[in-house]
Amino acid sequence: MTIRKGEQWGEPCSAPIGLIEFSNERALGIHIRNVGVIAAAVLKSGTLTRALGVNSLLGERSQIKVVVDLIKIRFIDVAGRERADFAVGSVLIGRKPWLGEICIASNSGYLGKRELMPKAHPNDGVFDLLIVHRAMGLRDRLQALRRVNTSNHIPHPDLSVKQVSVFAWPGDLDGLPSARCRLNVDGESLGLISSVKLEILPDAMTLYI
User: Fold this and answer.
1) CA distance 42 to 158
2) Which of 42, 82, 126, 183 is the most exposed place for a label (fewest CB within 10 A)?
3) In this structure, is residue 35 part of a structural domain?
4) What is the pTM (predicted TM-score) of this model?
5) Is residue 61 part of a domain?
6) What is the per-residue pLDDT across 79-95, written as a single tens digit (0 to 9) for each?
7) What CATH number is associated with residue 29?
C-alpha cells in the first residue's frame, strides 16, 4: 500500500540473508529490466539513500527497510526499435543539460546529487515531473541551477512541476518539441530517442538501504 500523508516510512532492521546486493540504482534497474521485478534487494547507494538521509555505505549500521515504487520506461530509439527499461531514482529527457526542452521525472526528488523536487516521495504512487520549457533563457536556467539547494528555484513561468502516474513524450507536452532527445536513466545515457512513455509501478518492491 502506498504511503499516506503523515505516515512513517522506513523501518530500521537487518536485511534477510541471501538477498542480492546492488551498488547503485542503475545496477538494480538493469537487473529488473533483464529478469523482471524482484520482491526485495539491498541497495547500497543512490538518490533513495539521499532521500533517507543515509550518507554512509552499508557496514556495521542497521539497514532501513522501505517499500518503493518503480518507474517503468518504454521508448522508441532513433532506429525505430521498441525498448523497455526501469528507473529506480530518476529519468531525464532532453537534448543537452540545461539547453532546450527538458523533462525530469524523479521518484525520490533528486537528479543525481541535486534535490530538485523536495516534495517527492519514493512510495506515494506517483513520480514528480519537472519540465523546463524551451523558452526559458540561459541566464534564468543558470540562476535556477544555483538556487536548487535552497529549494527556491520554482515558481518560474517556464518551469512547471506536477505529480503524475503516467507521462508520454512528446505527446503530453505543449508546443513542438525537438524531433529527437536523449534519454538518461539513473545516470546512464541510453542515447537518442524519438518517443518515450513513463509509468509508475506502485509498491513495486522492498529495499534494504
Assistant:
1) 39
2) 82
3) yes
4) 0.86
5) yes
6) 999 999 999 999 999 97
7) 2.60.200
